[in-house]
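ok so I'm stuck.
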Amino acid sequence: MLSGGPDSALALVQALASGEPVVALHVSIVTHARRHEYERAACRRIVARLRRDWPELDFHEASLTPPSRAAYADLPILGAFAAMLANGYGDIGKTWVGMDLQQDDGAVDAAFCTVMRTAIFAKRFPSTRIPTEHAPQPGTNLGKQQIREVLGEELWALTWSCRNPGLTGITCGRCESCIERSGTHAP
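replied:
not stuck anymore, here's the structure
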């Protein structure tokens, strides 16, 4: 699962470094704020860069437009899309989701896993191998400064973090993600 942010970029790098085949998925949740456009662009930049070292990286995109004013949790939605991709491949092996250090209380990870395993729907897709492992966070759930150091400046610069961008794609500088990102510095 690739969102375009530093956590998911690190999870993707770690998945690729495992030596196993990797299928990356970005799901755009379309909103009026257009954040999805900037996240999708970041995902494409990250994938293009990583394909220099791992040309076999398989990348898929999907989108969902929720009804206006709908309340939803994004990770369970992403779990359903991941399951759909797993059904298409017949096997997903291990899933990797980059989790923010401040948000990983285990509840969203549990919801993702439950939705994914349910959506694989073993009776309908009996040949699909349900994931045996799940890597809910990159490495040891690193803070943003550590992630920046591990990713390196080139890959870090390709990521996107703002939760409330302006319509022209300018970061707000005020949301939690912008504040965390501004608190990092080049190693």
